[in-house]
User: Which sequence fits this backbone?
């Protein structure tokens, strides 16, 4: 797997697409959902309690919920792109640092993919929650926030490894 990801063209193309999707999701889609600056979409991820989540999406109104349902695909695409981008960037840097056989560095490539997977799980749980708030369980909502937290922890760890590996080359 590492050899296939060791490709600067993958890094450049997914890096550009990730940047574009970041702008679209954070500055266009999320504000369309919450009707404000988009921060409530992120706040939902860390709410942990179903009642707090219900309050957040009630503030969005029907238009915000409709926008969420219409544009959730952008967040799935964004997660896919950033996971490939970070995995490929890390792999290129691991090979440049001649650390491709060092588990201390190579495990973080998998972490980049797990971040994207956690994002997809979080998106799917939010989709079910937003469209079925009454039957969605408190426990499942709590798990949703744990998954979101794991995603938000994985991304800075991957970025930290990028910095460490960049310094090694």
Assistant:
């Amino acid at each position: 797997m590492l050899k296939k990801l060791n490709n600067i063209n993958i890094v450049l193309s997914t890096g550009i697409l990730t940047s574009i999707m970041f702008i679209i999701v954070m500055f266009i889609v999320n504000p369309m959902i919450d009707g404000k600056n988009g921060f409530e979409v992120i706040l939902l991820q860390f709410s942990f309690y179903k009642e707090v989540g219900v309050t957040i999406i009630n503030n969005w109104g029907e238009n915000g919920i409709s926008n969420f349902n219409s544009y959730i695909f952008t967040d799935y695409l964004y997660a896919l792109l950033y996971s490939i981008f970070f995995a490929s960037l890390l792999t290129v840097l691991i090979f440049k640092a001649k650390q491709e056989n060092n588990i201390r560095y190579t495990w973080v490539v998998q972490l980049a993919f797990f971040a994207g997977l956690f994002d997809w799980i979080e998106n799917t749980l939010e989709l079910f929650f937003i469209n079925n708030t009454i039957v969605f369980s408190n426990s499942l909502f709590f798990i949703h926030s744990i998954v979101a937290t794991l995603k938000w922890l994985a991304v800075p760890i991957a970025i930290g490894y990028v910095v460490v590996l960049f310094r090694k080359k």
Notes: Residues 2-168 form one domain.
